[in-house]
């Protein structure tokens, strides 16, 4: 079952980035310069993709697709420590493959470096908020509505595209991969470190607060299948 979990993390991360980058390219091509329309299309496509991917792959791996989520789940004892580094590798390699897949589908050069500037304390604060909110959504959903968790996460990400100044990357693997696409979804390589530091801080805040706020008096086996213990 470990092999299936690793493949699920890699595949899910790849398809997530293909959705994020591919829908951004398509949105930019069709929006005729209207950035609001392009962002709306990008957000809706990402949310729809997440809903499908989490629903299908959560029973196999927890559907983290995100090193920050994996760290929090490992800290909570819901992901075995021996799986943490392999999860990181699968998530990053999958994310990179998804970016290159999107480029290939649109006939763009596979290797690119983004020129999209995303820096400054408002952007970093936005990433802290976006990542903390994602962890609170996950932990609250596991506690109170495990069967609706894929929908909750998808809706949160769609909303966070719009209420955060950074458009809610909230994921170190996604951030690294998006530095290699000079398209609508990109981020300059020199801006990556600030985003990742903010995301890790947000994960610590959201994970700590969520673990206390949504503490359960007893184990909930059904909830463990999603964003929790893996087979």
UniProtKB/TrEMBL annotation:
Keyword Cell membrane: no
Keyword field: Membrane, Repeat, Transmembrane, Transmembrane helix, Transport
Record's protein name: Aquaporin
Family: Belongs to the MIP/aquaporin (TC 1.A.8) family.
Gene3D superfamilies in UniProt: Glycerol uptake facilitator protein
Subcellular location as annotated: Endomembrane system
Domain of life where this protein originates: Bacteria
Main location: membrane
TM region(s), chain numbering: 37-63, 84-104, 124-142, 149-172, 192-215
Membrane topology: Multi-pass membrane protein
Pfam families (UniProt xref): MIP
Organism: Vogesella facilis
């Amino acid at each position: 079952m470990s092999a299936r979990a690793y493949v699920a993390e890699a595949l899910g991360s790849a398809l997530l980035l293909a959705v994020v980058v591919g829908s951004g390219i398509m949105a930019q091509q069709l929006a005729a310069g209207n950035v609001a329309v392009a962002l709306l299309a990008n957000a809706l496509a990402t949310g729809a993709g997440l809903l499908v991917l989490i629903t299908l792959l959560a029973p196999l791996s927890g559907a983290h697709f995100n090193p920050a989520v994996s760290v929090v789940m490992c800290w909570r004892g819901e992901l075995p420590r021996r799986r943490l580094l392999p999860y990181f590798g699968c998530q990053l390699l999958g994310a990179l493959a998804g970016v290159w897949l999107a480029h290939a589908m649109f006939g763009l050069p596979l290797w690119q470096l983004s020129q999209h500037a995303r820096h400054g304390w408002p952007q970093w604060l936005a990433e802290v908020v976006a990542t903390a909110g994602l962890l609170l959504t996950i932990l609250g959903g596991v506690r109170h509505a495990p069967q609706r968790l894929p929908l909750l996460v998808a809706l949160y990400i769609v909303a966070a595209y719009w209420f955060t100044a950074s458009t809610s990357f909230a994921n170190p693997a996604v951030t690294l991969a998006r530095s290699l696409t000079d398209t609508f979804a990109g981020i300059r390589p020199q801006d990556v470190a600030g985003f990742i530091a903010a995301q890790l801080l947000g994960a610590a805040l959201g994970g700590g607060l969520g673990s206390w706020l949504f503490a359960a008096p007893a184990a909930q086996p059904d909830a463990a299948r999603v964003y929790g213990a893996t087979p």
